[in-house]
Structures are given as C-alpha cells and as structure tokens.
Amino acid sequence: MITTGSKFYFGLAALSLAGAAAYGFGSRGGFNGTLSLGLNGSVGELTGYAVLLLVGAAALLIGGMVVGFRDADPEEAAAAYGLAEVPEPAPVAGNSYWPALGAAAATCAVVGLVVNTQVFLLGVVVGVLVLVEWMVRAWADRATG
C-alpha cells in the first residue's frame, strides 16, 4: 500500500526523472543517450542532467523508506509487525535554538575559508560546541521526557 507521505516523494521522483529526460533532449542530447543514462550516446549538458537524475533517485529511495516505515504511524506499524498493542509514542520535544546557532557557525566557517583563518577556526570551534550541546539536549529530552 502506498502511504500518504510517500506520494509526495514518488511524485517528486517522477517529476525529476521526466525533467532529466526533457533536459537531456533540450540540451541537444540524443534519444538513446538520454534514455540509457549516457551509455549509448550523448545526454547533452551533463551537470543538469546528473543533478535531476540524483534528485529522482534520492526521492525514490526516501519514498521507499517512508512506505517501509508506514509514515511512522503507530497503528500501522503495530499491524504490520503483529504487535498486540500500539507502542507509546515519544513525548514531543520543545523548541531548540541549537540549529540556528549551528547554521551561524557553519556560515562563519565558510566565510572564514575565504576571509581569514581565525574566523574559520572560530566557526569550527563554535560548531563543535553547538554539536555537543545539541546532542546533550536531545539525550536529556529523551531521558527525562
């Protein structure tokens, strides 16, 4: 059975694979080359073609995983695994500012690659500290509920 969440990923995969074929044809790729992934001819401009193919493959993989895990629905999982009762879902964790600080640290590190070594090192050190604190908070949220 195709679950609700997987329909998005399968649609994205179909759209990106069709887009890869259209991109290959539109960038002067041959018919055989475009449909055989470049084995029997030219695919035209390779970068855009490869990106669209990779997006399609990733969407197919994620869609298959979502079908396999039944959209993380406890009732569906209990029925699929033959459990007598539905497992208790985990409590919802609160809001966290660590992702925003991690993005700022990553930005600092990337800018530091261009500007200055000290800025890069600052971004790396802050990123490691954010990663450690984020992991501790995630553990504490699960441990205490």
Short summary:
With 145 residues, the protein is an all-alpha fold.
Describe the structure.
This protein is an all-alpha fold. Helix content is 72%, strand content 0%. The protein contains six helices and no strands. The longest helix is centred in the last third of the chain and has 28 residues. It is flat. The model has no long low-confidence stretch (mean pLDDT 86).
Backbone shape: flat
- Unreliable stretches covering 5 or more consecutive residues: none
Rg, rounded, reads 22 Å
How many helices? 6
Which range best describes the helical content: under 10%, 10-25%, 25-40%, 40-55%, 55-70% or over 70%? over 70%
- Distance N to C terminus: 33 Å
Estimated share of beta-strand residues: under 5%
List keywords for this structure.
flat, mainly alpha, 145 residues
Helix and strand layout, with pairings?
Elements: H1 4-26, H2 31-35, H3 46-68, H4 74-81, H5 98-114, H6 117-144
